[in-house]
Write a structure and sequence with these properties.
Layout lengths: L4 E2 L2 E2 L4 H15 L1 H5 L2 H15 L1 H18 L6 E2 L17 E2 L3 H8 L11 E4 L5 H8 L4 E6 L2 H13 L8 E6 L13 E5 L4 H17 L5 E5 L4 H6 L3 E8 L2 E8 L1
Parallel strand pairs: 5-6, 5-8, 6-7, 8-9
Antiparallel strand pairs: 1-2, 3-4, 9-11, 10-11
Helix pairs in contact: 1-4, 3-4, 5-6
């Protein structure tokens, strides 16, 4: 266990920092951690320190431990797609899996209008299902995850089998499918993206969403975390509903159309 004196104060006198740092050191000591690219974890950790600051970075780490345990699921780790079974063509347009921060997820889902909770929420690039489990905790009851990787969908369904829904009537579905070919329900009102793919695929999916709205007129919301290609939404007539920012870091944008 790490017992250091950094940042000019005794970590044990600051339980929040101390516990978060111990959690990070425990994470990197686990065998599975070394089976993936250590560089990725190190990169994201120090990137977060730079953009979010020390307090917010350690807050994100403590949320990881708290909610994985509380929800009884396993959505940790970064998973690259090279060794996975894909439903579509393998290309650099499909990004690796990494669960969004619990802290950010709870925040953005609570920013959506209450009336959206009664309609389907679609998670493009759902991975192991973290975002949908959090959405269910926030009151959404009709949840669909779509992912191109079969193994990730298998993990999501394993998590679903042990997850205890907040609402007994909640429906969670995880589909092994190409996002560009997924048939959108005519009443889906919320679409979630954690930068799951490149600009070309995002444009195709956005066109599908717009076509669905044209055929079944309704107001919709798109949550776009790590919004690398936000220009795609701007160019397609979407309006900014909410901006989620953490210190210097733009966590995401909620659009409406």
């Amino acid at each position: 266990m790490y017992e250091g004196n950094i940042f000019n104060f005794n970590l044990k006198d600051r339980p929040f920092f101390y516990n978060a740092l111990v959690e990070f050191l425990n994470l990197i000591s686990k065998p599975y951690f070394w089976k993936v690219k250590v560089f990725q974890y190190t990169y994201y950790f120090f990137r977060s320190l730079y953009y979010r600051g020390i307090v917010n970075t350690f807050k994100l780490l403590t949320y990881e431990k708290k909610y994985e345990k509380q929800l009884g699921i396993n959505t940790h780790s970064i998973v690259n797609l090279e060794e996975l079974t894909l439903a579509g063509d393998e290309s650099d347009q499909n990004h690796h899996y990494q669960g969004a921060s619990y802290f950010v997820l709870f925040s953005v889902f609570q920013k959506l209008p209450t009336e959206t909770k009664a309609f389907p929420l679609i998670d493009y690039g759902c991975g192991k299902g973290r975002a949908l489990f959090v959405a269910e905790q926030c009151g959404f009851t009709d949840l669909v995850g779509v992912d191109i990787a079969k193994e990730l969908i298998d993990h999501a369904n394993e998590n679903k089998a042990i997850y205890r829904p907040k609402n007994a009537n909640s429906k969670l579905s995880f589909l092994f499918e190409d996002a560009t070919k997924y048939k959108i329900p005519g009443n889906a009102c919320v679409f979630y993206f954690f930068n799951p793919f490149g600009e070309n695929i995002l444009r195709q999916v956005i066109q599908n969403i717009k076509e669905s709205v044209k055929q079944h007129p309704r107001e919709i919301y798109c949550i776009y975390l790590n919004p690398k290609y936000k220009a795609v939404f701007d160019q397609n007539g979407f309006k900014v509903y909410h901006i989620e920012k953490n210190n210097r870091y733009l966590e995401g944008i909620i659009y409406t159309f």
